[in-house]
Amino acid sequence: MKKKLGSLGLVIASVVLLSACGDNAAELQEVSLTVCTVGNPVVGDVGDGTYIYGGDPSALVDGDTVYLYTGHDTAVKEEYIIPEYLCYSSKDLVNWKDEGVVMKADKATVSWASTNTSAWAAQVAKHYDAAAGKDKYYLYFCTWDATSNGKQSIGVAVSDSPTGPFVDIGQPLVKGTVTEPQSSDWNDIDPTVWIETDANGVEHRYLAWGNGNYYICELNEDMISVMDRNGDGQITCGGDGDIVQKAVGSYTEAPWLYRRQDENGRYYGDYYLFYASGWREGMTYATTDDLFKGTWMYGDVIGAPSATSNTNHMAVIDFKGKTYFVYHNGALPGGSGFRRSACIRELVFNADGSIDPFEETASGVSGTANEIALMEGGSLSHAYFSNSAADNAYPYMNVAIGIYENAKELDALWVLRPGKADRSNEAYISIESENKQGLFFTANEDGSVTLAQETKVDADMEARQTFRTVKGLADKEGVSFESVSQPGKFLTVKDGVLVLSDGSDKAGATFFVTEK
Q1: What is the pLDDT of residues 221-244, one digit of tens each?
Q2: Which of 220, 335, 346, 507 has its CA 20 to 30 A from that of 366?
Q3: Distance separating alpha carbons of residues 302 and 275, to the nearest angstrom
Q4: Are strands 322-329 and 203-209 parallel, antiparallel or unpaired?
Q5: Which class for 216: exposed (0-12), middle (13-18), buried (19 or more C-beta within 10 A)?
Q6: Which parts of 278-422 are beta strand (E)?
Q7: What are the residues whose beta carbons fall under 8 Å from the beta carbon of 203, sequence distance 6 or more?
């Protein structure tokens, strides 16, 4: 029978007496901690040791359901191999249904594509088709274009359902050869859509996109053609053309258009542009009072480069009275900037419409984070660091853990996951950083314990990132953590730093876990 231990959220998994190391203790008793099986990433962990990676997330709220779309990252090496678009649905942002492939990006499906593996960023929009007398769904995407001198172009595919299948219209919506002058052959990527009826009752359908350059145009009511705003009979870019390029401070790519709504669902205030900035890519926003004629006013960098991915791509949605921010990283085992996964956190606006910077969150909107306190006082945190803009700083493998008096609050929060080495063993756990998502406690051969990323799915690494939980060596109301990769070695704080030891310092190896 399971029994709660104090206020720690600890549960006795068994009463089996196990031999301890050396002369430190005569017996050990396994306990199981309350672990978190939800949070971020929200999809991709199949649960049998395999993973489905998917980057460049976008989201659509349709009634009581959120639809999450990603490109399917299938690369083994560090390169983009993205053959198709995937969809997931949820009614609570906690439980997600895999809706499968909604469209492939191969030449057989997209007749103008020049590759079979370039399902780059996409967004789905819903719009009423008056001719058909029903709502339709439009997937705006980008891929390499065989009809535009090898450039990338923006495409659109149509479906009767948010889960597809989507059917390409047979030609690019915006050809890469139209948006001149260009700074690269991949300027025309990452489409985002905004539909709104103005104060005069006129509906506007905006399409924006771009890498390096930011472009915007209006769409016709059919949603599959660019509006000839100047009436000259052709679609042109620049000046008084139909497509305009606008300046946005520190803009790199991955735009997402958004505007706030009041309690009655009416839009108000400025428009927001969320986008990836710099390299490695951070997350930034700007505002304007008019999407086509207005000037973008720089807001702030709200998110640093990810601890596990070199790119960023975001979406912002309103759902059940709250605003949510969707992003991607490489936090799943084997993840990277080329094997990414979608994550969600709540987004909060200040009274003046500004947004404060925030960090990645392993617990997300549905999970829990914990404090791990030493019996003798102080809580475990990782050494403070800002995610670097330098590629050679990654992957993070040697971040120190210990007792840091001036630690930031988020640096001292941890998400307890089922043990990577054997998820079925209730006495096994893996410990993930709350704000450096994808970095786990890792037992090293030299006796050090650091935060590290599992850059490839590897049984040895998963054993090093798994610990057996037993009743505290010095206080049975607490817990001690035995290394699975090095049995008989325990997590221990020595001179303020977390290391492995033989457990003879029982107080230094005894901890108290509390949910925050």
Answers
A1: 999 999 999 999 999 999 889 999
A2: 335
A3: 10
A4: unpaired
A5: buried
A6: 282-288, 297-303, 315-319, 322-329, 341-346, 370-374, 380-382, 399-403, 414-418
A7: 195, 196, 197, 221
